[in-house]
Amino acid sequence: MKEKIFAAMSGGIDSSAVAWLLLEGGSCVSGVTMRLVDDTTADADIRDAAALCHQLGISHSVYDMRDEFARCVIDNFVSVYQDGGTPNPCIVCNKYLKFGALLDRAISEGADKIATGHYARIEKCGDRYLLRRAADSAKDQSYVLWMLSQHQLSRTVFPLGGLSKSEIRELASERDFVTAHKSDSQDICFVRDGDYAGFITHRTGKAPQSGDFTDIDGNILGRHKGIIYYTVGQRKGLGISFGQPMFVKDKDAATGRIVLSDNDSLFTKEVRLNTLNLIACDRLDGNIRAEVKIRYAHKAAPATLIQTAKDTATVIFDEPQRAPARGQSAVIYDGDTVIGGGIII
Predict the structure, then answer these.
(1) In the predicted model, what is the mean pLDDT of the chain?
(2) Contact, 156 vs 135, CB < 8 A?
(3) What is the DSSP annotation of 241-292?
(4) Active-site amino acid positions
(5) pLDDT in tens, 65-89
(6) pTM metric for this prediction
(7) Pairwise CA distance, residues 19 & 158, whole Å
(8) HSE value, Cβ hemisphere, 13 Å, CA-based, for 18
């Protein structure tokens, strides 16, 4: 029998290619779109997904997951920012929505697997499913998938993992997909204008509290307008002149203080992780040599990894790394294989 796969359709070019590739591969394909937010862009994306499914001759369903998204993703985003961290909502969404609620619903409706447009690869090695980098290193999205479990990986396919973006655009253009003209989305889907502080203020109904800028010795340098306006490593937009370049080194939600420093003071060799999730193994035995990324655009750097408890670890880099931020993810690689990851604390 044909494998029944539900293709997660975002209304973009990548998920369109996913559906077509699955059909060409002989799978029984249904298109499904998650409604996560209420705005005109989301409405347009749903229409595009439906139009593409009609063009391919497959069914299309819309799953209303606004409540789950608000609870699991948006509330977490707001909370981490208010606590002085820097959240990555795409990673949380992948764990709880795309490969959580969506996968559960797809299985309950008879699907064998789900497919998404992520640029990454899944390979089975013995009894274990491994997550690997995409063939196109410029588009690799394995960083945002480190939270996935063995169950989630076993029920997922990434048809784009071995292809480049240029190949996907060519495929869509040659077949005249209704989505072929669309560009990649660059914004967080629930903050279209990039104004995180404005979104948080509107969401909570609370005005940000101003506080002190201090140096690393605790000396007060001036006043800031609220910690949600700033990110670790930031230089521009501080609203005050110091006579030399100054950067956000840390944010203390308890005191409302933001610590500033010169660029050299942003570098550190050690970061600690919680919420550790291991994909390539059940537990790390001893000190492990690996490469670790501390943000999506960060180049993976050589490090020693020490698991300190079931869900915690310490990363010691060979060379100091710039501005690791609490709330961001550290993802651990062995070549192309994702060993796992955790949240920086």
Answers:
(1) 96
(2) no
(3) --SS--EEEEEETTTTEEEEE-GGGGEEEEEEEEEEEESS-SS--S-EEEEE
(4) 93, 189
(5) 999 999 999 999 999 999 999 999 9
(6) 0.94
(7) 11
(8) 29
